[in-house]
Amino acid sequence: MLNTIKPKVTLVGAGPGDPDLLTLKGAKALAEANVVLYDALANEEILNFAPQNAIRIFVGKQIGNHAYTQDQINQLIVDNALTYGNVVRLKGGDPFIFGRGSEEIEYAHSFGIPTFVVPGISSVVAVPANQGISITKRGISESFWVITGTTSDRELSADVALAAQSSATVVILMGMSKLAQIVSLFKKASKGELPVAIIQNGTTPKEKIGVGTIDTIQEIVAENKLSSPAIIVIGDVVKESSQLKGFYEEFVTAEIKL
User: Fold this and answer.
1) pLDDT of amino acid 99
2) pTM
3) Best CA proximity match to 123, nearest among 135, 108, 113
4) Which residues of the chain form beta strands (DSSP E)?
5) b/e per residue 178-205 (b: at least 16 CB within 10 A)
6) Catalytic residue check, 39
7) Catalytic residue check, 187
8) What is the widest separation between alpha-carbon atoms in the chain?
9) Which of these is catalytic: 18, 91, 94, 174?
10) Residue 156: how many CB atoms within 10 A of its CB?
11) Residue 77, Cα to own-chain centre: how many angstroms?
12) Is 225 a catalytic site residue?
């Protein structure tokens, strides 16, 4: 009997959290899936776009809790493609921004499996935008840095120190466990009054936000009990948000009174 299985792997960006921010192309790819391997940051509601009989496998990574190692995930992608055919690898945000998407595609490609990529709306821009923060703004910020707070060796990226010396907006992903170090680097660069927003579970019903400055943000995180997953946005664009302006006006008034 001839083997009619046609292996295929499609890497799909699930977007920042709100299932409505999945792209149409991503939804179409899921509708044709035989197997879906999904991450912790991919909203499980998105799995409803896959056929009812599609196999769903959770391969998420969270701090201190990895369902599978990256090597095991790579092998699962290949094994399922060869066994069942059409595999969708669903990853939060955009799979090529700190998502190891290129590693997974390269591994599948090394077995001669056809591979495709569906970009996702990245949390880098979508989560701040949801709070009215434009990470670039004429006359305020001409560029932005996007940095991982925790590198593969679990250290803070050396780029944070460089970013602290620039006038650009700085967006840090996976940085909550390194917040004290981040604050210290910006203080060394005499940026204590620089506005900061920390947004947890952005674009979802569980979204929480803390807003302050480099000097105050650690207290605000403690008061609001903010934790991962969260995005740290540092720069004057934060106080330019129409949604957050009120906070900074109150902050300046309180300083004048003191």
Assistant:
1) 85
2) 0.90
3) 135
4) 8-13, 35-38, 55-58, 61-62, 65-66, 86-91, 115-118, 144-148, 169-173, 195-200, 208-213, 230-234
5) bbeebbebbeebebeebbbbbbbbbbbe
6) yes
7) no
8) 84
9) 174
10) 22
11) 22
12) no
